[in-house]
Automatic annotation (TrEMBL):
<dbReference type="InterPro" id="IPR029154">
    <property type="entry name" value="HIBADH-like_NADP-bd"/>
</dbReference>
<feature type="region of interest" description="Disordered">
    <location>
        <begin position="274"/>
        <end position="305"/>
    </location>
</feature>
<keyword id="KW-0560">Oxidoreductase</keyword>
<dbReference type="InterPro" id="IPR015815">
    <property type="entry name" value="HIBADH-related"/>
</dbReference>
<dbReference type="InterPro" id="IPR008927">
    <property type="entry name" value="6-PGluconate_DH-like_C_sf"/>
</dbReference>
<dbReference type="GO" id="GO:0016491">
    <property type="term" value="F:oxidoreductase activity"/>
</dbReference>
<dbReference type="InterPro" id="IPR036291">
    <property type="entry name" value="NAD(P)-bd_dom_sf"/>
</dbReference>
<feature type="domain" description="3-hydroxyisobutyrate dehydrogenase-like NAD-binding">
    <location>
        <begin position="154"/>
        <end position="274"/>
    </location>
</feature>
<feature type="active site">
    <location>
        <position position="160"/>
    </location>
</feature>
<feature type="domain" description="6-phosphogluconate dehydrogenase NADP-binding">
    <location>
        <begin position="1"/>
        <end position="151"/>
    </location>
</feature>
<dbReference type="GO" id="GO:0050661">
    <property type="term" value="F:NADP binding"/>
</dbReference>
<dbReference type="Pfam" id="PF14833">
    <property type="entry name" value="NAD_binding_11"/>
</dbReference>
<dbReference type="InterPro" id="IPR006115">
    <property type="entry name" value="6PGDH_NADP-bd"/>
</dbReference>
<comment type="similarity">
    <text>Belongs to the HIBADH-related family.</text>
</comment>
<dbReference type="GO" id="GO:0051287">
    <property type="term" value="F:NAD binding"/>
</dbReference>
<dbReference type="Pfam" id="PF03446">
    <property type="entry name" value="NAD_binding_2"/>
</dbReference>
<protein>
    <submittedName>
        <fullName>NAD(P)-dependent oxidoreductase</fullName>
    </submittedName>
</protein>
Amino acid sequence: MGRPMVRNLLRAGHDVIVHNRSPEPARTLAAEGARTADDPREVAAGATHTALCVADPDAVRAVALDSDGLLAGAPAGGVIVDHSTIDPETTRVLAETASARDVAWVDAPVSGGEQGAIDGTLTMMAGGDPAAVTAVRPMLEVNGATVRHVGPVGTGQTVKAANQLLVGGTLALVAEAVLLLEAAGAEVTPALEALAGGLAGSAVLDAKGARMHAREFAPGARVDLHRKDLGIALEIAREHTRPVPLTGLVAQLFDAAAARGHGGDDHAGVLRALEALGPPGGTDAEPQASAAPTSNASRNRPTAT
């Protein structure tokens, strides 16, 4: 996600300083006009607004709090924008630490995938002080076609968690639909096109339905990362005593996909967990003599003679 977002900022005329834990992406961006820094502290020291996008809470804490981290170099009055997807509580703690140094923290996780980053059409859910969000909005809008201030620090992560439970649940349902169509002998490609044209249509169906049918799971957003995000959603639900039973079930499917070795696959690979529940080969098995008994209603239904 980071590279295309930096490229968009460069094209928009911003002076961008970059650091990456592995040096090759930074070298590539330097060849395109970015300046490079040896560590996050150097990045922050040279900028009024700093953005980071890493995988998990531990990585965010390291980038922000280490001796060579962002807060060691950020100037008073600066703003740090976190595009990572992490939990709201970690975000609030980091924001308090930043505030003690007169630095504002904005959590602005993104949705839209790598293609959205390339196209500059991401959705951003921004949590933070209104003045801080206003200050960084021009930077955010370079990569975000939809940028919404959703409340105080931490609420951006809460909205992203809601986003991820919706996406995860939809992925599971699209996978079920694909497997059902395949098992029943339908022409899957035109069937998916028909579904996309009706009320069942969604961005997830458009982006992932055909890939599921083709079993093309080269990673964009990985199963393991989506598992982490669903865990965040479940933790928020526990904190607020809000039952989310469907999300719990979907999280189990993602766990099962990872347990079967698909954690590094695209999150559409949740299909593998559902596929494993079916008969060998993914086709209908022969009916068994010990089939489950029919309901009383079925047994008592009159038959035509």
